[in-house]
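A further point concerns the way the authors explain their paired sequence and structure data. Since the whole study asks how a given chain folds, the encoding of that fold should be made plain. A single example would do more here than another paragraph of explanation. An entry of this sort, consisting of the sequence and the corresponding backbone structure tokens, reads as follows:

_____
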Amino acid sequence: MTSRLRLPSVFTRPLHLGRRAALYGALVLVALVFVSLIVSSGHWLRTRRIDLTADRLYTLSPGTLQIVDHLQRPLRLTLYFSEHATRDLPKLRSYEQRVRDMLQEIAVRSHGRVQLQVIDPVPYSDDEASAEGAGLTAANGGSNGERVFFGLAGGAPPGGADSEAAEGAAPEHALAIPFFDPSREPFLEYDIAKLLYELNQTSKPHIGVISSLPVEGNPVLGQQPWVVMQQLAQLFDVKTIDAGQLRQVGADIRVLLLIHPRHLSADALYAIDQYVLRGGHLVVFVDPDAELDDTPGDPSSGALPDHGSDLPRLFAAWGVRYDPRQVVLDRSHALTIELGGNNVSHPAMLWLDSQSLNRDDVATASLQRIDLSSAGHFDLAPDAGTRLIPLLQSSPDAEAVPVQRVLQASENPSLLLQDYQPGNTRYVFAARLRGTFPSAFPERAKRPGHLARSAPGDEVVLVADTDLLSDRLWVEPQTILGQTMMRPFANNGDFVGNLVDNLSGSSALLSIRGRSTSQRPFTRVEALRNVADQKFLQKEQELERELAETRQRLEELQPGKGGGHAGSVGTEQRSEIEQFRQRQLAINKELRDVQHQLNAEIDALGLRLKVINIVLVPVLVALLGLLYGWRRMRRNRRRL
């Protein structure tokens, strides 16, 4: 037999003590390594983030990333938000967190080129004065009547490498978003990226204007430019182009406005055609009847003067249908005008509300009203290779009529409502035409530099009215403190400005589209409500049918009908009414049961979510921890 040698405890105790000391030392080392990793990861992983939202709300689009990566100068963004004044406005505070998260993401991505600062402009402070000086707009309705600031100011940081240049150009490179309107949340990224893009520019973008209307005024006669052109001149370098001398549109023209084109030469049309195919941004304003066109008619013919405009050759090549002899009437959006001392409704002069504007387009999303007059409409040809995205539309209660009918009813617009026949069609007044554009001049293919097709995804904006540019449809003079100012009552100028502003940006800026909002609906709860609504609707229809049947039965039981006596008739009526009342009570009880079932299902759903979040997940985490600890303990015992 073999005997096992057992060492006295005096020899084994030092071994246990050494192992315990080594374990404690390893724990301390692990803790130090863990803390070091946590501290260092705050710097190393600062630009590494994971967006787990369903709609990728916090992931910057490629267009924004391109703008941020190509910033040529350091910028400072200052977010002004009234913390104290919004303590009772939870929705605005939630949206502020969404704005701040996006700004922080941009600042992180810029690698130091964008500095973000958040300021709470408390009342009567220097910060409040700074917010107002930066061009921010305060909203009323805060706590205790305080004003609410929620906007973004951008400019060159103080003390930078080019601070002197920044100081000299401060007015040009200090821009702001006056107020973050929650209704524009789908365009939040676009608005911020647009601000960065404009801050990065060193000069105003150039836009060209070709017009047969006196949009630039007449200095000789003392006529001022139209207000819409004055507004554009504040933001852009506007160049008037003579269509008679046009042979090529310069490469520096970011946007070309073609207003009321009439009798353009083939060379001018070819220059516009090639400008579009090179990726130029064109906005076309045509009109069946331009009311400010003073071209006289032919007195000998006795016909009414032709004040229409068209681009038949280019429209045909692009697959656009447009009839310069048709005007859209819409009695649902008819403007009320004063004529002969009376207020009359004019179905050819229209005011379009928000329901007629494209709420998903950045140019029209925030607008409330656009006024038109004798406007035409666009459509696509069946074989068109382009896509028409409406911006302004009529109501379904609209009709297209010959322009001559509108001209003949100029003294009595009510004549236009005679024999009115709406076609249940929403006519398109303005739209984005997007796709691949072929050249309208294939016979000039041998010319040097000729382009046969544009790149995919190019776009042209079409507007079937020129009168919306005129002052009378959207501004009126108002005297304030002895100075005459133009007060807008419609958003026509904002519409044109938004279009030019959007198109004058880079291709990266144009690629940024509207996104989802951060306010996620409870889809499961909404589905339950929809099911309940269907049940309610069925019960209501059942009740209405029974009510109609009972009324019909009561009419049949009236004296003199059916040959019954008065006493028996009264008894039958009372019995019928009593049965109906009992059935009505039963159906009402079923309606309450449906509502109770709906509430019970919603409460059960909420309870399940609470159990999962509060109980199940922590229990699973605890069980996994215990299982891991148990396995570690078994492994250690086996080693011993």
